[in-house]
Request: fold
Amino acid sequence: MSYYTSLTGLKNAQTELNVIAHNIANAETTGFKKSDTAFADIVSSSVITDPALTVGIGSRVSKINQEFSLGPIEQTGSALDLALDGEGFFTVRNPQSGQTEYTRAGGFTVDGQGFLKNAQNARLQVFPVNNGVVDTASLQSVQIPATNAAGSAYASVVVNSDGHVVATYDDGSNAELGVVAVANFIAPDGLKQMGSATWQSTGKSGMATYGQPGTGVLGGLMSGSLERSNVDIAEELVELISAQRYFQANAKAIDTATQISQTVINLRN
Reply:
């Protein structure tokens, strides 16, 4: 029994070390959210077991929690670097798979077709604007026309603090292309991690609800800035030392159980 109990501890310690290593490896990943490991005990009992004599048989990983606290905001000066200073996620769509994904990494660029995309080529989603009215019931990829109605060439694009995407042309005219759509979830820790600091909705997270930046509980939009990882290196190193001690203690318990078993075998011989 002691072997199995300590073995569960070793496995759990390895899982915790893996989570901590993943956090540390992504300490410089834009928009990354750290995780932590939660454990629960395992108890062996039956309906006739005396509660005073119940013996535990180890531990298990009950959950690996994602922590969506705000990371430090870094100013970059780039007009298409975006950060949210509160709750919510940027909404992007993968042009190959057509899947909708969510991210806190707001580094966008303009591709050859005029779409605003991130490093994974997923296109930023916005609410269309019709005659000055924002249509929050639909989403579309924001695309910058190469020329305006007068034939002037595209010059630059900016995203205002209220999420409005505005393109400027050589003749000095502006064209509003949409409003950045910010998604929120009832249970964001239920989102499925897809890598590259992106997530997809699941049954545990609930369906996304959308709104404009700065409305309700949604964070305001900061142009020219990026949200860094929320990993605290000092905290992770302390957790790493604790996990190592946890692993060593369980390994020592197995070693002690082995010595006791060997002693009993020698007595019988």
